[in-house]
Amino acid sequence: MSTQHPFDKALALQHSDIRVGHFTGATSPDYWNMVGPFGGATAAIALQSVMQHPDVLGTPIALTVNFAAALEAGAFDVQATAVRTNRSTQHWTVQITQPGAGGAPNMTTTATVVTAARRETWSQSDMPMPEAPRPGTVERLSVGPAGVAWLDQYEMRLFGGSIPAKWDASLHHSESRLWLRDAQARPLDFASLAAMSDVFYPRVWLRRAKHVPAGTVSITTYFHAGPAQLAEVGTGYLLGRAVGQQFFNGFFDQTAHLWSEQGALLATSNQIVYYKE
């Protein structure tokens, strides 16, 4: 019986003999989201292809993922290419494709990754963790709706900005706060941090209390920690905060922050989201 964590199964990539940096993988039903994989899982796969590349330098500092089309259930190809290596930074492009009509590759996802060999310097955060109740005092979010399997892979404890109980088109703020970790214990790493940066539902749903069609077009995540700081988190909770910023003519952006229980800011993200009336 396999004891591999569901997230590690979803991230499993096989090196290909086609060219350096070429990998193959398959979508995971554990991280399905209605019409395709959970965007955070796709972002993690893009990052994972760079982290598994034999020429990678250092650790991630930035990841941008553009969702051109939803991945279909089944196999996919990933190509990670180092386009520039400097003394302390390395710049990557990533492409995820699936076979299209006539066997031609169908581009579903493009991404850029920046890795860096960090050196110890003066460090300080100007974004302190907000006050929050202890995780054990907050009720855990119940099982997600049918077709949204990825929600079951996370333990979420919202204490502000839950999905509206009534879709009555009333106006609200757009901020949510929650405690978050993998439902099945797994030590935090860069791939899981990238995925958790995308767990927040579309802010337009909360702002308007209206369940309109919405989907992420592009997300950028910045990593503010190294392996030692992630190891300190282990399987503990992260405090997450997300808020919308500007809603305009079919698109809006939302920003998110993730802190450790000890108050260290681990990652920030910003995404542009499509919405429809």
Proportion of residues in β-strands: 35-45%
Mean pLDDT reading: 95
If strands are numbered along the chain, what order do they take across the biggest sheet?
1-2-6-7-8-5-11-14-13-12-10-9
Main beta-sheet annotation: 12 strands, antiparallel
Quickly count the domains. 2
- Tally of alpha and pi helices: 5
Distance between the termini: 47 Å
Number of E-type strands: 14
Query: How does CATH name the architecture of the largest domain?
Result: Beta Barrel
Helix fraction bin: 10-25%
Please state the structural category.
Answer: mainly beta
* Contiguous uncertain segments of 5+ residues: none
From the alpha-carbon coordinates, what is the Rg to the nearest angstrom?
A: 19 Å
The CATH homologous superfamily of the largest domain is termed: Acyl-CoA thioesterase, double hotdog domain
Assign the CATH class of the largest domain: Mainly Beta
Say what the CATH topology of the largest domain is. Porin
Shape: globular
Order of helices and strands: HEEEEHEEEEEEHHEHEEE
Write up what this structure looks like.
It holds the Pfam family 4HBT_3. Residues 29-113 form the Acyl-CoA thioesterase-like N-terminal HotDog domain. The protein is mainly beta. The protein folds into 2 domains: 6-116, Acyl-CoA thioesterase, double hotdog domain (Porin, Beta Barrel); 151-275, Porin (Beta Barrel), CATH 2.40.160. Helices cover 14% and strands 40% of the residues. It contains 5 helices and 14 strands. A 12-stranded antiparallel β-sheet has the order 1-2-6-7-8-5-11-14-13-12-10-9. Helix 2 packs antiparallel against helix 3. The termini are far apart.
